[in-house]
Amino acid sequence: MKFSSWSVMLLLVVCYALWGGGMVAMKYAFESFAVFHVVFARVAFAALFYLALFPRWKHLPYEKGDWKYLLLLVMFEPCLFFLCETFSMKYTTASQGGIIAACFPFCTAVAAWFLLKERLTCRTIVGIILAVIGVAGSAWFAEDDARASDPLLGNLLMFGAVLSSSGYAVCVRFISRRYSFLSISAIQALGGVAAFAPFLMGSSLPRTVTFPALCGLLYMGIGVGILAYLLLNFSLRYLEAGVVSLFGNLIPIFTLIFACLILGERINLPQVVCIGLTLVGVLFSSTEKRQEGKAL
Fold first, then answer.
1. CA–CA distance, 247 with 104 (Å, rounded to integer)
2. Mind listing the pLDDT tens digit for each residue in 121-150?
3. For residues 116 and 127, what is the distance between their CA atoms, to the nearest angstrom?
4. CB 294 within 8 A of CB 121
């Protein structure tokens, strides 16, 4: 079954909307659960889901040497990315993290150009710049938040998450030439369970669990751990890694919107303008025709 680029891009918007909501869900989850509880839930729910679908992906097109790429895949995401992203939310604010997260499209586009020989056009670069300015601006005009206990450490961890996610996008784009998006998602989830299970042993269970915290944990496990990654891996099968990463600029935008609707935070006029600039940048680059632009 063939999918148009527009339908895949629409799925990407849903994917990153789920991811943006995850930032809010994590804040609720931290009311009762420790970092490793949240990290493990993100892969455990997904692992159970893919084990139930085992007959659909059990026939892997494995070739000699694939273990290196599959190991890198699991190492980048969920291992390094989940750890860096989750811990960063303990030390910095979503707004400050958004500035760092804005580096993701540029890092991924450059990595895909260098490693996968994907075309990096002038239009793509302009779109990335517009989106980065929009995301950075929306974070810059955000109101101060005293809940950032160590913003420098948190922002460094978020940058580590950006680098990990860029490496992951390149790995998926490479192996998705033979592996199905379902098998990639399954390997990622099961590998994450194997990696995080030992750390969970040393983390004590919460004494009390609030309903919002439980909902936040379930959202991270099902909404992000299963749905978002299914959509992401599916999109990387049909679109270039640089194009997919460009939509990552929507994460902090959706985070701001959900924080406004759910947490009651306010979005001021400059932030609205910056959100619009981000959307213009994403649409400008992602709607580029294949024959347009001068490849770099």
1. 10
2. 777 778 777 777 776 676 667 555 555 567
3. 20
4. yes
> How many residues are present in the chain?
296
Amino acid in position 122: C
Structure tokens at 260: 């406004």
Tokens standing for residue 256: 């701001």
Q: What are residue 121's DSSP bridge partners?
A: 295
Q: Is the peptide bond before 198 cis (omega within 30 degrees of 0)?
A: no
Which token pair is 287? 């709607």
Phi, psi torsion values for 291, nearest 5 degrees:
-85, -5
Rounded CA-CA distance 62/64 in Å is 7
The per-residue pLDDT for range 176-216, each reduced to its tens digit, is 888 988 899 899 999 999 999 888 877 788 888 999 999 99
What's the pTM? Answer: 0.72
List, as one string, the DSSP characters of 134-179.
Answer: HHHHHHHTSPP-TT-S-HHHHHHHHHHHHHHHHHHHHHHHHHTTTS
What is each CA distance from 82 to 39, 44, 64, 177, 244, in whole angstroms? 6, 13, 29, 25, 19
Element (H, E) at 276: helix 269-286
Instruction: List the one residue out of 185, 175, 255, 204 whose CA is nearest residue 34.
Output: 204
* Cα→Cα distances 2→5, 59, 232, Å: 10, 22, 17
CA 54 to chain CA centroid, nearest Å = 25
The identity of residue 197, as a single letter, is A
What is the C-alpha separation between 233 and 227, in angstroms, rounded?
Answer: 10
Instruction: Tell me the C-alpha distance between 235 and 177, whole Å.
Output: 12
User: How many Cβ atoms from other residues are within 10 Å of residue 126's Cβ?
Assistant: 15
